[in-house]
Amino acid sequence: MADKYLGDTIPNFDKNQSNIDQSVGLTNLSALTSVQTRTIWEVIAIILFAVTVIGSLEFFIRFYEVPHYVMPPPSDIAVALVTDFEFIGPHLVDTLIELIAGFSIGASIGFLLAAVITQFPFAEKIIAPYILLLVTTPMLALVPLLILRFGFGYEPRIIAVALASGPMVMINAATGFRRVDLSKIALARSFGANTLQIFLKIRIPMALPMIIVGLMIGAIFGLLTAVGAEMVGGGFGLGNRLTTFSAMIKMPQFFAVIIILSFLGIMIYVIFFLIGKKWASWES
Amino acid sequence: MDVTEGQFVSVVGPSGCGKTTLLWSMAGLHSLSSGEIRLDEEIVKEPHPQIGMVFQDANMLPWRNLIKNIQLPFEIKGIKPDDARIENLLERVGLAGFGQKYPRELSGGMQQRASIVRALSFDPSVLLMDEPFGALDAFTRDDMNLLVQEIWLETKKTIVFITHNIVEAVFLSDRVHVMSARPGRLAETIDVNFPRPRTIEMLSDPKAVDLVSKIKAKIERT
C-alpha cells in the first residue's frame, strides 16, 4: 500500500464525522474569521468609543496632573510619534528584518518537520523532546549566549526569532496534517495517487487552516522574541528603543514605540486573517 | 464471483458481511488474504486505470469547486482533462452550469451526481459503486436509479453495485449476488430478467415484488 495511513482501513462514511471535526475548535478558523464585515454604524460606534477612551485618558492625565514619566497624555504620544518617527523608523526596519528573516527560516523548517513527523511516526518520537525543549525555554534567556557566539549584529536575533516561531508553526501544522480524512485519501488512491500526490493534493489543503493559524501564532511569537532580544542585546531595534527611551525617561517616545509595536501585531493578524479568508474559508 | 463485460451486477447482504470490503478489494484499495481479483487476464492489486469508483459519501474535496473536483483524477493520472466528455456528463446528470460552485453549496444528491461524473470522466470500463445513494431520500434515490440506468444503457459499462436496498438492486441489475456474514461469503446468485429500460412503476409488478421477497428471505436465512 502506497499510503500506510490508509492501509487496509475502510473509512466510516458517517455523515456526522465532519461535525466531530468542527467541534474541535482549534481546527477551524472561527477564532480568526468571526470578525465579520461591519456596517457603517458599527464603524462609527467603534470610532466613537475609541475617541471616548483616548479623550478620557487625556483628560484624566492632565486633570489629575499624573506625572509624565508615569504615563504621558495621548496627545504627547501622538506628537512624539510624528516628530520622532525619523529616528524610530530605522529601528522599525531593523526589527522587521529580524522578524521576517527569522520567521521565514523558522516557519519553513517547522513546516518541513511537521510534514516529516506526520509521515514517519518514529521520527516524531525522536524529535518531540527537542521541540518541547524549544517551546518551553524562553528564547530570551538564550539571546546572551547567541550574542556571545554570533556577535552583536542581526544574527542572534534572527536565530532567536526562528527558534521561537518555528515550533509554533510545526505544532500547528502537524496537528493539521494529523487530521486524516481517510475517505479523501482513499479517493485519491482510487485514481492511482502516490504518497507525494496525496500529500500535496489532499493533506496540505486539508491542513491549511491549521497551518495558517500556526503561521500567525508563530509570527506573533517571533515579534515578541525580536523585541525581547533587542532589549537584552541592545544596540538597535524597537526593543532597544524601548530600553533607551525608558532610561532617558522620554516616555512619550517610549509609548510611541509601543504603539508601533501594537500596529505590527495587528498587521500580522490582519495579513493572516486575509490569507485564511482566501485559502481556508472552505472550512467554515 | 464472475462479472461479464457490460453486465450490471449488485451485491446485497446484511451489515458487516463484507460487501464494502469486497468492492474495495476490487478497486485495488484493500489487500486480500487469499484469492485474487482479475480484470480480464490482469491481476488487480492496486488501483487500475480502467476501474472507477463511486463512494458512499460524495467525497468531494471541499476546497475545490465542482469542475476542479472532477478534474482531480486527470491531475493525479497526469493526463489532460477530457473537457468535452466532462461537460457532456454534467449535462446528462443535470449539473450543467454548476461547475464553479463549491460542494458546500450543493445538496447531497447533486454532490453524488458530481461524483458519478468524476468517476466516469476518465472513461473507465468498470464502475464500482459502494452504496452511493444510501444517504439520499427516497425520491432522490429513485431519480438517481433512473439516471444510473440511463447512463449504463448508453455507455455499456460494467457496473458492480453495492446496496442495502433490495428494491434498488432488483431495479438496476442483471444479477444479484447475496452475501452472508460471519464468515463473509457469496451465498447465492439470482438473475433478474426484467426487460429494459425499467421503470419505477414496474417495481409494483407482482413478479418484482416476489423477487424482492425471495432475495430478502435469502438474506435473512443466511
Shape of chain A: flat
Question: Could you name the CATH homologous superfamily of the largest domain in chain A?
Answer: MetI-like
Query: What class, by secondary structure content of chain B?
Result: alpha/beta
Number of domains of chain B: 2
Name the helix and strand elements of chain A from N-terminus to C-terminus, one letter apiece.
HHHHHHHHHHHH
Structural class label of chain A:
mainly alpha
Task: Write a structural description.
The complex is a heterodimer of chains A (284) and B (222). Chain A has 2 domains: 30 residues; 210 residues, Orthogonal Bundle (MetI-like fold). With 284 residues, chain A is mainly alpha-helical. In chain A, 77% of the residues lie in helices and 0% in strands. In chain A, helix 5 crosses helix 8 and helix 10 runs antiparallel to helix 12. Chain B has 222 residues and is an alpha/beta fold. Chain B folds into 2 domains: 143 residues, P-loop containing nucleotide triphosphate hydrolases (Rossmann fold), CATH 3.40.50.300; 61 residues, no CATH class. Chain B contains 8 helices and 8 strands; from the N terminus they run E-H-E-E-E-H-H-H-H-E-H-E-H-E-E-H. Chain B starts with 7 loop residues before the first strand and ends with a helix. Classes of the chains: A mainly alpha (284), B alpha/beta (222). Chains A and B meet through helix 9 and helix 10 of A and helix 1 and helix 3 of B.
Give a short overview.
The complex is a heterodimer of chains A (284) and B (222). By secondary structure, chain A is mostly helical.
